[in-house]
Amino acid sequence: MMGKKKRRANRKKKRQTWKKRPKWKHYGDMERHHLHPKSRGGNFSPENILLIDQHKHKVWHELFGLMTLGEVISFLQRLQRCKKFQRVHH
């Protein structure tokens, strides 16, 4: 079980992180998308944020969940290799 000091430190860290976050989530019909997900250590730096259409953002997460961009690329390359393998062996 976590001690009081550790819980207090975690709360303080979360508050400090919250203050650094941009105030916007939506910009018109665009949303911010984290290339490296927040839940996996991603941050709010401009290099990690991509403005994307709300519908496309929803579909991205339905297809790829919380994969990073690199993981998505790797996944798609594996699918392509599997498809080539199927063509050769059928």
Shape field: flat
* Contiguous runs where pLDDT drops below 50 for at least 5 residues: none
Biggest sheet, open or closed, and with what strands and sense?
3 strands, antiparallel
Instruction: Write the element-wise H/E pattern from the N-terminal end onward.
Output: HEEEHH
Look at the helices and sheets and give the structural class. Answer: alpha+beta
Report, as a whole number of angstroms, the end-to-end distance: 56 Å
Radius of gyration: 19 Å
Instruction: Give the number of domains.
Output: 1
Main sheet: which strands, in order across? Answer: 1-2-3
The tally of beta strands, per DSSP, is 3
Q: How much helicity do the residues have?
A: 40-55%
Oligomeric form of this entry?
single chain
Overall pLDDT level: 81
Give a quick rundown of the structure.
Helix content is 53%, strand content 13%.
Describe the structure in your own words.
By secondary structure, the chain is α+β, with helices and mostly antiparallel strands. It has 3 helices and 3 strands; from the N terminus they run αβββαα. The protein has one domain (24-88). Strand 1 and strand 2 (30-34) form a beta hairpin. The model has no long low-confidence stretch (mean pLDDT 81). It starts with a helix and ends with a helix. It has helices at 4-20, 54-64, 69-88, and strands at 26-27, 30-34, 49-53.
